Amino acid sequence: MKLSLDPAMQGALAEDSKRQEWFETVYSKAQEDPARVPWANLSAHPLTEAFVKTQVRGIDGLRVLDIGCGLGDNAECFAAEGAQVTAFDFVAQAVEWAKRRFPQTKVAYRQADLFALPEEWRGQFDLVHECYTLQAISVALIPQALGILRDLLAPDGKLLIVARARAEDEEVSGPPWPLPPSVFDIAKAQGLEPVVIEDIAATERIGRRHWRAVLKRAG
Ligand SMILES: C[S@@+](CC[C@H](N)C(=O)[O-])C[C@H]1O[C@@H](n2cnc3c(N)ncnc32)[C@H](O)[C@@H]1O
After folding, report:
1. What is the mean pLDDT of residues 34-40?
2. Is the whole model's pTM more than 0.70, yes or no?
């Protein structure tokens, strides 16, 4: 497989469903220039930031996990409000880059693969945040990914999803693969029930239709 080509574009997802080599290549070829990382805005996602700012009880002291943290802006947004944040990405260069960008950070940045996380993380987080990582994972891995996210939650923990949305029957030519409404049925089958699901129309600021959803452990 050619390192610089996305397996999704080569019809090779079956062999490399996590697309890790492709993500590694993106960060490596960017050579510290964030303009060359398509998802790097150098600021927290507006929907994540608004969520953080509008929590009535605040998030001070909450144990937060940011999955697929990229260059760290979302993780830093939680930490700035007093959360105890762990953030991980499976690309070592992304993690090192995030640490260099925020030398005074209180975030614990780690290199880790969502599909092979440390056992001791199970049940440990009050809030698990994902922004644009589920939509970058091949559709076949979504049920497994959601099950892993559920297992990370403390008994009263919440999962916050910020992702591009699409209609069920809308054609997609991903990656990314905007999430259809049925993703919440898949979440339910994985033991996650909705607290709130917002279907947010495109605005000038966020460009496209999005989901912002909070889910909790079922039962
Ligand atoms: C589209 S980017 C979004 C980055 C960041 N969340 C943001 O909103 O800017 C997806 C990120 O998830 C990471 N990623 C994808 N699959 C992963 C996995 N299985 N484990 C850990 N990180 C993963 C990629 O390396 C990439 O940094």
Report:
1. 95
2. yes
